[in-house]
Amino acid sequence: MTACINKSVLCGFLGEDPRSADLPNGGSVVSLRLATTETWKTADNQRKSATEWHNVAIFNEALGKVAMSYLRKGSAVYVEGQLRHRKYTDRAGVERWIAEVVLPKGRGELKLMDTRQDEAARREASGRDRAAGDGPELDDHVPF
Fold first, then answer.
1. How far apart are CA 74 and CA 14, in angstroms?
2. Domain interval for residue 91
3. 36, 43, 106, 127: least surrounded by Cβ within 10 Å?
4. How many whole angstroms separate alpha carbon 24 and alpha carbon 4?
5. Residue 2 belongs to a domain
6. Partners of 83 in the beta sheet?
7. pLDDT digits (tens, 9 = 90+) for 113-138
8. What Cα–Cα distance (Å) separates residue 35 from each residue in 49, 118, 127, 129, 138?
9. pTM across the whole model
10. What is the CATH number of the domain that holds 16?
């Protein structure tokens, strides 16, 4: 038997704050706009880049709460879900198709990639303040 897999993995940055919407069936969906950027050097050694924008729909309630609580525009995020295409009608009445990565109920992955901690707390925890001479004077005299 041949197995089929529909899995999309994205690691990028949010282009806007997450948005939450209630669904008619009582659930909710959290929407993300995720940018991934590819960079390369051309033959004449110039740096080029191209940014792709991706739509992410989170139907997983727990992951949606995490996204709404901790993610903001510019946050680095890892998303793993299923690629889906759907048709919708825009405000002007025109039918359009959209591709999105979907994290369904009970499945998918969302990892926060930012290390946003208070700089002072990080320095204090690592002992860099003392090493840099910002802390109290220490006696370096060794008695033996």
1. 5
2. 8-131
3. 43
4. 31
5. no
6. 101
7. 987 543 433 444 444 444 444 444 54
8. 12, 26, 36, 36, 49
9. 0.74
10. 2.40.50.140
